[in-house]
Amino acid sequence: MGSKNKLKRFRENDNFTNVIQPTREEAVIDGLNLKGNWNKSFFKNDNPIVLELGCGKGEYSVNLAKMYPNKNFLGVDIKGARFWRGAKTALEENLTNVGFLRTQIELIANLFAENEVDEIWITFPDPQIKYKRTKHRLTNEEFLEKYKSILKKDGVMHLKTDSEFMHGYTLGLLHGLRVEIEFAHHDVYGIGDEAPKEVVSIQTYYESQYLEIRKKITYIRFKFK
Q1: Which of 13, 60, 156, 222 is such that its CA lies 20 to 30 A from the CA of 118?
Q2: pLDDT of residue 202
Q3: Contact call for residues 167 and 218 (beta carbons, < 8 A)
């Protein structure tokens, strides 16, 4: 994508009513004024809040919003030029139960209050395979603690990935932490009707390409105790 295209999308994001773009200072020092007030001030209802972390183009957030009109969805990513597509689609289709938050995922606990979130999706994250990149892996123990701090007591986590490494790493970590694993499979499209519908009925652009070359898609659903 050219720099002119990116700048155009950034400008449009500034005017989109479904996009929130706090500065790092707002997130780290001042605290976002929406923290603890996402239902009241942003969605203007009391429906459950679901986050998609590392949402990319926002395809999953938008399609989940269509599938579950009685839930509120927030796609979270630092790359606003990417989720511009999802934000624009949501506005064009008048989807009032989906929005987008531009921030670093490491700041997520600064932007949501304790027990404010009902579900968290992590879709096709960078597995950060190299040892030196472990701290950036979105299911490492430090990140899991952040998610736990904002989830409700019965809150649900979802991990969908094409990386067998990420799948295995996360499963191993969850077993060690004694987390309740509700569902796990290394080939979610290969198990027919057993697969949760929201996992196999929504595909991102890159996911469809993975499936074309018969790359297996893995999935884990779990809860913190």
Answers
A1: 13
A2: 95
A3: yes
b/e string for 82-106 if b means 16 or more Cβ within 10 A? bbbbbbbbbbeeebbbbbbbbbebe
What integer pLDDT is reported at residue 139 of this predicted model? 97
Q: Supply the pLDDT for residue 91.
A: 96
Residue 128 contacts by C-beta under 8 Å, 6 or more apart in sequence? 134, 136, 137
- Give residue 3's pLDDT: 65
Q: Would strands 98-102 and 72-77 be described as parallel, antiparallel, or unpaired?
A: parallel
Q: Which of 126, 154, 187, 193 is catalytic?
A: 126
pLDDT at 58: 95
Position 47 scores a pLDDT of 98
Residues 6+ apart with CB under 8 A from 171: 181, 184, 220
Provide long-range contacts, Cβ within 8 A and 24+ apart, for 169-172: 169/127, 169/137, 169/139, 170/139, 170/220, 171/220
- SS3 assignment, position 18: coil
Q: Which domain holds residue 19?
A: 3-223
Quote the number of domains for the chain: 1
| Residue 120, domain CATH | 3.40.50.150
Cα of first residue to Cα of last residue in the chain, in angstroms, is: 43
Rounded-to-integer distance, Cα 43 and Cα 146, Å: 23
126 is catalytic: yes
Segments of the chain scoring below 50 in pLDDT: none
